[in-house]
From TrEMBL, chains A, B:
Family stated for the protein in its record: Belongs to the class-II aminoacyl-tRNA synthetase family. Type 1 subfamily.
Protein name per the record: Aspartate--tRNA ligase
Residues binding L-aspartate, per UniProt: E169, R215, H442, R483
InterPro entries, A to Z: Aa-tRNA-synt_II, aa-tRNA-synth_II, aa-tRNA-synth_II/BPL/LPL, Asp-tRNA-ligase_1, Asp-tRNA-ligase_1_N, Asp/Asn-tRNA-synth_IIb, AspRS_core, GAD-like_sf
Domain Aminoacyl-transfer RNA synthetases class-II family profile: 138-549
KW Glycosyltransferase (keyword) present: no
Keywords per UniProt: Aminoacyl-tRNA synthetase, ATP-binding, Cytoplasm, Ligase, Nucleotide-binding, Protein biosynthesis
Binding-site residues, ATP: R215, D216, E217, Q224, E476, G528, L529, D530, R531
Location (main, coarse): cytoplasm
Any one GO BP annotation for this protein: aspartyl-tRNA aminoacylation
Molecular function terms, GO-annotated: aspartate-tRNA ligase activity; ATP binding; catalytic activity, acting on a protein; nucleic acid binding; transferase activity
Region (Aspartate): 193-196
UniProt-annotated location(s): Cytoplasm
Length: 580, 580
């Protein structure tokens, strides 16, 4: 085939050139004996003009036929400013039909009303829609930009095993029965965590990998059976050095892919500040409506709920929603429902109209309290005030969820605005009431802050980890930590988490051994590639940036996977289906 | 940490600089009160000099301890020309022990006598050996070079599913039981073949992916449970256009990674020629000793074996091994054994000494035959002549194996010589005597040569495929084909292979449907990355270029995977272990 140009390429300066084009028929319309065809390929669309009487073949051409045409570039009379090639058209001398096409079950255009299951069943056609191609092209541009940075900064890409060992910690594993070892199973990796740390012990110093990771969890809009993470680990660097490098990498990414200059260093919020101000450990700071602390106003309050909350050491906070004092009872009920879904026992709503605060609890409040509220919250006419009084974390979480809700409702989350920030200083441990013990919040190899080690025996909950998350527009893009490299500190951590020698050996076995042969100080992080691609391509779901995703039921509507298999296959793998 | 330089970096021009270095103690030796330490990191080794009396800490330092040192660069008296930093040493003022190390179970040096299972059990230490690091760094350099070419030539990297559908054709699948769909299984991909063809139907035009592929087959030196292939597919290109692009890509690779200019275009051999001349469809042409056709000499032969062979339409060929006429009976027996292992019923060996051919069958041959042999084979003093008479394919295969054997024995396979070639024109079909039907030799979607379609009904074995393999030094690096894009031709192929409508639907289902919506002419190929890395890094096994490989028993001696799992995990997956 002698294609001379792609369909996105021709301009006024090409007029009078003889060209050969290839592509799919995107649209065909007749005008007397003239036939106009929009010919499409990956790069765009070119308008073709035929004289129908000149060719028998052209009569049968319909949408999605593949043509090879020879012709001459002409200036268009009716130019199309929305098309890059809109100033020209190609007057065709010769046409060859390369392939025909049945009528497609979904229309090949950016706009579609096809159901998602239809789109997934005919994914090869869904991906023919230019908007979908652009998303996958952008995903490639993203990985290319990230690789470029890492390759230029001494990182080595190393592949780690996909058939690994099942571990009891973490999410549910996907298992792969072994044919050679009856009754034994491989597990697909939830992340290359252990391997990347081993590579630091090996002395590779800087590692990266675009790693496929697997978690057998129920799916949501931003979850798939497997996902791709940009996984990194570095030796001999501090947390701030790692963060600075990542900021450079992300700034380059935004420049390469979106043409935007984003400011560095990013805003850094401690976990505590993020929770206090945004009610979230992944705050979206493209908009305000921050949480405000009002516990002190009610230290001696007549409203029993507030009084009890303070007595229990809880926290009272408010979010002020501008111009929403006119919400109906029904609307308020919905908000209250949302608060409860996020763990609140109740939600106090007040309105500020005609310079007065109104609402059912006002009768329990003093003039002084109302004035303090007015002043602290800097109330403006028609403000809606949402108040939650509960344990600190619950108060933060609930108001964070409501803030998020109103951010969406009020259209404050601009898709073409990109706000990066770090959340740092996460607590090292989480206490499980159920199990009566501490768990590592990040993972058991995370390095604690040295200055907090004085609390380790008396109150482990006061110990913070050198862990950090990157947040973009309210999504956790990724996170990581410095790791422990001192065997004694590691032992102490295991002790706090109540592990016995035997449990340590069973759970962490060879990995703990490895640490004794000269482990460098190291740390790293991982970014969710699907999520980055989703946000930068301004998509609503990660399914839009994955070529062949599973549906919410973990099924591929195109290939039908997973399916029943031949009984002989199971026999070879020494397993049976358990029908009970 | 304030590292100013790496350990491979300092030169004479740095003398008198104050430097801070980090790394592992590779060697320590005392000389009076002076201590010499070789400090190692990824980039190399620097010699440190300490005054032992100056520091208490230095006394306890042993191999594989991690140090941070400050000191001054001095010119060395006894320069080491084998070391890039061999002209300098660093006289240390200040040392900090970053971490200690137990005695390692294997020595951290290029040369090792450790058993492979020890190396794999302590892989993190095996990978600390500089020679192993170099191999993985080269692997990264290889992928970087290949990506660079593809990114510059309009290829899009697209990830395809790891959790796919099990198909009855091909090798044995690894299966993954589904929790959500009881009794159903995903399969790990043997290759992204269907998906990459679907991406062409989607109109991506040029696709690539470094894809992890899985085949549950028994392992060999160049096989693993999973392997990485550079997978590519292109639309609207001819086989020669695809091959030319690949030659450019590989020439760039050899330049980037080995600094070598390799000639393009590569030699092209048809399958038939490759078999006739080298007895292999992946010939190593770094050396001669080609197979020679001698059937015609024996058309009227008194030696019954030759006579029968010719009567059955077989082929008699010879390989001449120079300077090996002095092989002992025992050595010849070994060669005969090897011939039989490769399918020969027997092996005729002749010797050419004192201008005479000798050997047990000489008494059955005429003077004319002996003279013809001498002339055709251009015999030289002390030549050993190996003759096989059998069906054409067997004759070729056996002599190809013997040629290979002597190529190794005679040291003709130079590891630093790289010879690329194409093998083309493979037969489209293989006939299975057992099943009484034709199978596709490559896969059922391979495009046949148009000019052979006249034989399709009368003798399908005469039909060649537009399929091509790239061979490097006797290894198949990769291969591919143009694919069928015409539904009618596809139907014809299925007919030849004896598939019913139902079988077609069951086996190829949605994929055959997809072809009806405007499929472009397309083709592609895949390269085995592990094998490329093995050859270019001059390694003996692909395990040397995989960070964490499995052993020959499909086990990871480090993590112990695969292992038994918790019964509850199996219950959730609706499977039981079958102990029968």
């Amino acid at each position: 085939m002698n294609r001379t140009h792609t369909n996105g390429e021709l301009r006024l300066s090409d007029v009078n050139k003889k060209v050969t084009l290839l592509g799919w028929v995107a649209k065909r319309r007749n005008f007397g004996s003239l036939v106009f065809i929009d010919l499409r390929d990956r790069s765009g669309i070119t308008q073709l003009v035929f004289d129908e009487t000149s060719s028998e073949a052209i009569k049968e051409v319909r949408n999605e036929y593949i043509l090879e045409v020879e012709g001459t570039v002409h200036e268009r009379k009716d130019k199309n400013p929305n098309l890059e090639t809109g100033e020209i058209e190609v007057v065709v001398d010769k046409v060859e039909i390369i392939n025909s096409a049945k009528t497609t079950p979904l229309i090949i255009a950016d706009e579609t009303d096809a159901l998602e299951d239809t789109r997934l069943k005919y994914r090869y056609l869904d991906l023919r829609r230019p908007i979908m191609q652009k998303k996958l092209l952008m995903r490639h541009a993203i990985t290319k930009s990230l690789r470029g940075y890492l390759d230029d900064h001494g990182f080595v890409e190393i592949e780690t095993p996909v058939l690994g060992k099942s571990t009891p910690e973490g999410a549910r594993d996907y298992l792969v029965p072994s044919r050679v070892h009856p009754g034994c199973f491989y597990a697909l990796p939830q992340s290359p965590q252990l391997f990347k740390q081993l590579l630091m012990i090996s002395g590779f110093e800087r590692y990266y990998q675009f790693a496929r990771c697997f978690r057998d969890e129920d799916l949501r809009a931003d979850r798939q059976t497997d996902f791709t993470q940009l996984d990194m680990e570095m030796s001999f660097l501090s947390d701030v050095e790692i963060q600075t490098m990542m900021e450079e990498m992300l700034a380059k990414l935004m420049k390469d892919v979106k043409g935007l200059d984003i400011p560095t260093p990013f805003l850094r919020l401690s976990y505590e500040e993020a929770m206090n101000r945004y009610g979230s450990d992944k705050p979206d700071n493209r908009f305000g409506m921050e949480l405000q602390e009002i516990t002190d106003i009610f230290t001696d309050c007549g409203f029993q709920v507030f009084k009890d909350c303070i007595a229990k050491g809880g926290s009272i906070k408010a979010v002020v929603v501008p111009d929403k004092a006119d919400m109906t009872r029904k609307e308020i009920d919905k908000i209250t429902e949302l608060a409860k879904k996020n763990g609140a026992k109740g939600l106090v709503t007040l309105k500020y109209m005609h310079e007065e605060i109104s609402g059912s609890i006002v009768k329990f409040l003093t003039e002084k309290e109302l004035n303090a509220l007015k002043e602290t919250l800097a109330l403006k006419e028609n403000d809606l005030i949402l108040i939650v009084s509960d344990a600190w974390e619950t108060t933060c979480n609930v108001l964070g969820a409501l803030r998020n809700h109103f951010g969406t409702v009020l259209g404050l989350k601009k898709k073409d605005e990109f706000s990066f920030l770090w959340v740092t200083d996460f607590p090292m441990f989480e206490y499980s009431e159920e199990d009566g013990r501490y768990y590592a919040k990040h993972h058991p190899f995370t390095r604690p802050k040295q200055e907090d080690m004085k609390y380790i025996d008396e109150d482990p909950s006061k110990v913070h980890a050198i862990a950090y998350d990157v947040v973009l527009n309210g999504y956790e893009l990724g996170g990581g930590s410095l790791r422990i490299y001192d065997s004694k500190m590691q032992e102490k951590m295991f002790e706090v988490m109540g592990f016995t020698e035997e449990q340590i050996h069973e759970r962490f076995g060879f990995f703990v051994d490895a640490f004794q042969y000269g482990t460098p100080p190291h740390g790293g992080l991982a970014f969710g590639l699907d999520r980055i691609a989703m946000i930068l391509s301004e998509s609503d779901s990660i399914r839009d940036v994955i070529a062949f995703p599973k549906n919410a039921n973990a099924k591929c509507p195109m290939s039908d996977a997973p399916t029943p298999v031949d009984p002989q296959q199971l026999e070879e793998l020494h397993i049976k289906i358990d029908n009970e």
